[in-house]
Amino acid sequence: MLKGFREFIARGNVLDLAVAVIVGAAFATITTSLTEDVIMPIIGALTGGLDFSRKFVLLGPVPTGYTGSPTDYEALKKAGALMLGWGRFVTVVINFLILAFIIYQLVRFATRTRLRHDAETPATSEEVVLLREIRDELKGREV
């Protein structure tokens, strides 16, 4: 059982997948930081200080015993208030769109590079391969 598991892990595609997951997680962290630390503050500056990440709609009463501000998203959430945090959702959607766009650009670049490489190295058709085999066979008979 351990031998089979070792063979499974040693396959190239499993290792490639593991590397892709790790790089993807790191890339997602970078994208999140880009969204939260660069793009959203710029949007906030353009809209007069609007911070989407803290926008919410209170769906129920403020919890009893809550003494904080009724506009403090984090404190209300910690107190257990029933809220619809639409601002965080907007931030996450923007984060996703940025990530999807960057991945699209990477795939597009890789496809162009592969197509350019394929165009530079002409493919050998099956007919050419077959004709070469026939030629080699005929040469072998003449000797």
Describe this entry's structure for a reader.
The structure is a single chain. The protein is mainly α. It has one domain (2-50, 85-142). The chain contains 5 helices and 2 strands, in the order H-H-E-H-E-H-H. A two-stranded antiparallel sheet has the order 1-2. The protein starts with a helix and ends with a helix. 3% of the residues are buried.
Compute the number of helices: 5
Poorly predicted segments: none
| Rg, nearest Å | 29 Å
- How does the overall form come out from the CA principal axes? elongated
| Lateral strand order in the biggest sheet | 1-2
Give helix % range.
Answer: over 70%
What letter string, H or E per element, gives the SSE order? HHEHEHH
Q: How many domains is the backbone divided into? A: 1
- Total strand segments: 2
| Largest pleated sheet | 2 strands, antiparallel
In whole angstroms, the N-to-C terminal distance is: 54 Å
Strand share of the residues?
under 5%
User: What average pLDDT do the residues reach?
Assistant: 84
Structural class: mainly alpha
